[in-house]
Amino acid sequence: MRRALSLLLAAALLTTISGCRDRVDLENVTLMLMMGLDLDENNKLVIYASSPVFSKEAKEKNEVTQVNAETLRDSRGKLEARVSALISTGKLQNILVGKKLLQHPGWIKLLDLFYRDSKTRINARLIAVDGPVGEIMYFAPANKRRLSLHIAKLVDTANERNLVEKATLFEFNRQLLERGKMPIITGLRKTKREVVADESILLDNSGMYVGSLDLEENEILQILQDDQISDLSLTFLLPEQGANKDKALNLGALSCYVVDVKRKVRTGYSDGRFRFDLDFRLPIRLTERLFSFDVQKDTAQLEKQIDKQLQAQMKAVVDKLQKHAVDPIGLGLFARAYRYRDWKKVQDQWGEAFKNADIRIRVRTEIIDMGEIR
Fold this sequence. Notes:
Layout: H1 2-16, E1 29-31, E2 34-39, E3 45-52, E4 62-68, H2 72-80, E5 86-88, E6 94-98, H3 99-102, H4 112-116, E7 125-129, H5 133-137, H6 147-160, H7 169-177, E8 184-190, E9 195-203, E10 209-214, H8 215-225, E11 232-237, E12 253-258, E13 262-270, E14 273-289, H9 299-324, H10 331-338, H11 340-346, H12 350-355, E15 358-369
Helix pairs in contact: 8-9, 10-11
């Protein structure tokens, strides 16, 4: 009797356990790994979708579909009318946005679907494309893995080496809500042979495109932000050692790793403008020196030459950011923390306040390792 009651109770419990009622077989799903957003020649929104093909009979390993639509949700039905299975965005890796679209006010509202739909992956990378998005979406390199996975790894690696900034959908939304620091995302472009991640895209607080930073400028930005992920590798052309950009061979060049960034920021306010004094101390390791120099004997002299070049590069990056009235450094966070009353007056126009700010930079490097040879 007890055994019968136990079996009856177990059967009753099994009926209440949630199962896999919404399970879908892999062959019945189109896994969208990469999505593209751009404007065509008629300024109409065009949506691209890239999905892997698992069939042994298929000659291509990726399926790319494009449609014109009013919104991302509107494109869903049009895309599913062209693919052989239901579309799933749960494994989305990259979202490519054309620079042409980035220059249109309100484009970020198109991203509402990603934040509202719980089945969408908000850790997907948001990437700007210099040129038509379709050129990358339909690109099929013969010596690379699936393009969507290749681009994801390419961006991650470039970011880990401090070459470009990276923002996921989640991080991008946080950047938009932060008034004291402006958004910055990865920039891609396609050459004849490959896809290259070699710039970071500057956006204002509304998400509109205002400019870009190249690889060297982004490395300098990492120092200004005190946000390097790994050792920074910098190369300097020292005029004191005969370096000249017009030469075929620059034997006055020196390369080093920035081991750490020690930054102090002092914030002030006078005559209606903010003032920021940025003091940097950088321990460095020499990795390359193409000229003769007794580093052990004249360390201080070489450090001064490096300081001069690095300070000039940092000032050039800050001048560029102020010209575009964008603050990806995050100096607005210091203004809010230490000069709140003054910050509150300009919090909705921080870009202009940053543009007019007095920013002074002081750099002191310290050579802690000259390498295995003198």
